[in-house]
Specification:
By secondary structure, chain A is an alpha/beta fold. Helix content of chain A is about 40%, strand content about 25%. In chain B, β14, α15 and β15 form a beta-alpha-beta unit. The chains are: A alpha/beta, B alpha/beta. The site of thiamine diphosphate has 25 residues of chain B, from α4, β15 and α16.
Chain lengths: ~190, ~600
């Protein structure tokens, strides 16, 4: 048995940190885990994605199209871009946030309207404004850990040692706020 | 102890455990983190070299002098290092030496998809291919023993998914190796023709011995599931195959892949009704199998390009298509990577864009390659590192023969690329009385690959300070008469300087001097020179903004247009106050945010 998780977003949104924390927690909980990411352009506003596979005896580290049990999109348009990765009955978690691409910002094309309506038509889709929630905690950047909380709850793995992984992997001055963000995320799913 | 490591972290750990004492590399995705991680072990001297040829040559010297050594590079880097590699293949080693080549099936961050396994065969040296992080660590320890026992450099071939994916690794301890005392040995190391002719025979004998090793090593093994389907595979493609077929097939898993084990493969083929060769990039194993006269399926059913992921394998072999959602792609716009907020390349390309019709731009590889896209669209070609100056020179020579074409060549590269091979190209321009405009975008770091230090940054890989190379002095010493060093965030000066260079009828060099926003380490001199760098922010005065969007031509991701109010605003979290948009705004609607002054 194994589960496939894919996290997608825009460079700079913190997908990589969420992935690291989840991977570490799964390892400490005794799962076999493999993780793969394509991050060449992560600092330059490109689209980024990372894959986590866990269970027993995992071979391939990549999540292929049509196989993600969980797809977490940190940005609306990225949700559509990677929609073909989620299983038909897989869970899709979307952060209701628009980040312009250079093309939409320069007015070459429009940022597509109605993405959220389109996504809502799909069953097993959960949409949150994690950016707003993060602002209530006082730091917009922790939206990544809020979404991680939502995901962990959706996976019904609340017992995962995520807090310990946060303590291990996050800079000391940000540990407290990230713990809060994670707990907030847990309470949001459903 | 168990840890979850990327292949790059794991191979660095393996090198440490194997007692490596000297390592050198030039950065390049997906190999970069190998040396960065080796650099964390204080037992190892780890260095960035200006290019891959120099990296390998230092490593060769270290091996000859008796210390275990390692070079790492991306696949195209091996092209640069090929010259020393082919002679190193003849001389062999004193202490073990490994060259890690990180190939890129699928070309996630590269210009081509070359398969460097061909280099091992071409140079007639040993080769190994790990499939996951545990193997990446364990195999390299054996690689050093093989290198020493058979007197061969060893090509260690990794690929993006092995380098960048994480899996669980059981760590071991470092085994300190005594240095092998250096003794002069002309007939081994001085590759003049007379000695080369003798070494040539040694190489051939070595291949025979290595072929025997290949038959019996534990790294080439059969996994028997009592199936009549046999799969021969190596590297990450083995993991993909296992995922696709599970226990429905037998596997011949090849970890030692030059020379390939003839008997083992031959018997495996004979024992199976259907044999599939599953490998990424070239039909390297497949051609070997077919040359033996064995029947197998390979590139006739698998794609010749891209990654051989489980879905690709299933589609090819089982004609199994996954039931996949078809997203509405009208709702998706491309998201090309862009210059960061505050990137010092921005101001230069903004001004150069105004001369678009008068110039041809010979580009190069670095963050500035992104100027090929919106809103700059400023790059006529890009070939390989260091080629901007030389290809620009060739192009100018031909353009000048056409009396109806007076366009000027502007050749552009970064500081790291200049040190890599750009210096040679500039020498060529001076020597041949070239007339090109040559631009060095000096952001004091190797940006594209993740801010590695370089000869101009002031620091070595392991943090030690040194004297930064003086680009201006080098350029002048080469013989360029017209040199200007400017701040690229000062648009007026950028414009004047471009005009100045266009007026000249001789080769010129423009050096833009401002650090990368992501550069982390500064010396006191730097802080004095780049006063207030990244400490301020800009803001839009709403009542003055007319919504003309002129500022968007800077391509800065911190600028946001609000379609409702028809006004611009600046994202306070990402703006670093470079003032490029402030200078572009025709209505003086952008000012320094007094909160941050
Ligand atoms: C032969 C070769 N080696 C390495 C690379 C990987 N690479 C691509 S861009 C780059 C760095 C360029 O740095 P610099 O010229 O300083 O420009 P910046 O990215 O800082 O603007 C490197 C090392 C490559 N493409 N080719």
């Amino acid at each position: 048995m194994f589960k496939n998780v894919k996290l997608v977003g825009v460079g700079g949104q913190g997908t990589i940190l969420s992935t690291k924390i989840l991977t570490q927690a799964l390892l400490n909980a005794g799962y076999d885990v493999k993780m793969s990411e394509i991050h060449g352009m992560s600092q330059r506003g490109g689209s980024v994605s990372s894959d986590i596979r866990f269970g027993e005896n995992i071979s391939s580290p990549v999540v292929v199209k049509g196989s993600a049990d969980y797809l977490v999109a940190f940005e609306q348009m990225e949700a559509v871009r990677y929609l073909d990765y989620v299983k038909k009955d897989g869970i899709l978690i979307v952060n209701d946030l628009k980040i312009h691409s250079m093309l939409t910002q320069a007015g070459k094309t429009k940022y597509p309207e109605d993405i959220i309506d389109y996504l809502k038509e799909r069953e097993h889709t959960y949409i949150y404004d994690a950016t707003e929630k993060a602002k209530t905690l006082g730091n917009q950047k922790v939206l990544n850990i809020i979404l991680l909380g939502v995901l962990v709850k959706a996976m019904k793995l609340e017992k995962l040692p995520i807090i310990e992984a946060i303590e291990d992997l996050v800079k000391p001055q940000f540990i407290e706020i990230n713990k809060k963000a994670f707990k907030l995320g847990l309470s949001m799913f459903g | 102890m168990k840890k979850i490591l990327t292949g790059n972290e794991a191979v660095a750990r393996g090198a440490y455990e194997a007692g490596v004492v000297f390592a050198s590399a030039y950065p390049g995705t997906p190999s970069t983190e190998i040396l960065e991680n080796i650099g964390l072990y204080k037992e190892i001297i780890a260095e960035w070299a200006p290019n891959e040829k120099v990296a390998l040559e230092s490593v060769i010297g270290a091996s000859i002098a008796g210390g275990r050594s390692l070079a790492s590079m991306k696949h195209v880097g091996v092209n640069v290092a090929a010259d020393p590699l082919f002679t190193f293949a003849y001389t062999g080693v004193t202490a073990g030496s490994v060259l890690i080549s990180a190939d890129e099936p699928g070309m996630h961050s590269s210009q081509n998809e070359q398969d460097n396994r061909n280099y091992a065969k071409f140079a007639k040296i040993a080769m190994m291919e790990p499939s996951n992080s545990q193997e990446a660590k364990d195999m390299i320890i054996d690689a050093y023993d093989i290198s020493e026992k058979y007197d061969t450099p060893l090509l260690y071939r990794m690929t993006t998914r092995v380098c960048h994916s994480k899996s669980i690794v059981e760590l071991g301890e470092r085994e300190e190796k005594e240095l092998i005392p250096y003794e002069k040995n002309f007939s081994k190391y001085v590759a003049v023709p007379a000695i080369g002719r003798q070494l040539r025979h040694k190489v051939e004998k070595r291949l025979i011995a290595l072929a025997e090793y290949s038959e019996q090593t534990k790294w080439n093994k059969i996994i028997n599931n009592k199936s009549n389907i046999g799969i021969i595979s190596s590297g990450i493609a083995f993991e993909y195959s296992k995922e696709a077929f599970g226990k429905e097939a037998d596997y011949l898993k090849l970890g030692f892949t030059n020379p390939l084990p003839k008997n083992l493969i031959s018997k495996f083929c004979d024992d199976h009704e259907k044999v599939y060769i599953i490998e990424e990039n070239d039909p390297y194993i497949e051609e070997f199998v077919k040359n033996m006269g064995k029947k197998c399926f390979g590139k006739d059913i698998f794609p010749y390009t891209g990654e051989m992921t489980p879905d690709v394998i299933k589609r090819a072999v089982l004609h199994e298509n996954m039931d996949i959602l078809q997203p509405n792609m009208d709702l998706v716009v491309n998201r090309p990577p862009t210059f960061c907020s505050g990137c010092p390349h921005r101001g230069f390309f903004y001004e150069l864009g105004k001369k678009r019709k008068k110039i041809i731009v010979a580009g190069d590889i670095g963050c500035y390659s992104l100027a090929v896209g919106e809103p700059y669209n400023l790059m006529d070609w890009l070939i390989c590192m260091g080629a901007a100056f030389s290809s620009g020179h060739g192009a100018q020579s031909v353009i000048d023969r056409n009396p109806n074409d007076d366009r000027r060549l502007v050749s552009i590269m970064g500081d790291s690329t200049f040190f890599h091979t750009g210096i040679n190209s500039l020498i060529n321009t001076v020597y041949n009385n070239g007339k090109t405009i040559n631009v060095i975008l000096d952001n004091r770091i190797t940006g594209m690959t993740g801010q590695q230090d370089n000869p101009g940054s002031g620091y070595k890989l392991q943090g030690e300070e040194n004297t930064p190379l003086d680009i201006e002095a080098i350029v002048k010493a080469i013989g360029i008469k017209h040199v200007r060093k400017i701040n690229p965030n000062d648009l007026k000066i950028v414009k004047e300087t471009i005009n100045w260079a266009l007026e000249l009828n001789e080769a010129s060099v423009i050096i833009t001097d401002w650090p990368c926003v992501l550069k982390k380490k500064y010396k006191n001199e730097d802080i004095e020179q780049y006063t207030n760098a990244w400490k301020t922010k800009d803001k839009v005065l709403e009542d003055k903004c007319v919504g003309c969007k002129a500022c968007l031509r800077s391509g800065c991701p911190s600028l946001v247009f609000n379609p409702e109010t028809k006004k611009m605003s600046i994202d306070e979290t990402t703006c670093v106050g470079c003032d490029v948009c402030l200078q572009i705004c025709p209505y003086d609607a952008i000012v320094k945010d007094e909160k941050y002054v």
